[in-house]
Amino acid sequence: MMFSGILMLRACESSNISLEQVNQQRLKRNGHSIQEDDFSTIVAEHQDMVLNTCFRFVLNREDAEDIAQEVFIEAYRSLENFRKESKLSTWLYRIAVTKSLDHLRKKKRKKRFSSLKRVIGLHDPTEELALPSSTATPEEVLSGNERTEILQDALSSLPDNQKTAFLLSKYDGYSNQEIADIMQTTVSAVESLVHRAKKSLQNKLEKHYKKQ
Question: Which domains can be identified in the chain, with CATH numbers?
Answer without folding.
Answer: 1-23+34-109 (1.10.1740.10), 113-128+136-212 (1.10.10.10)
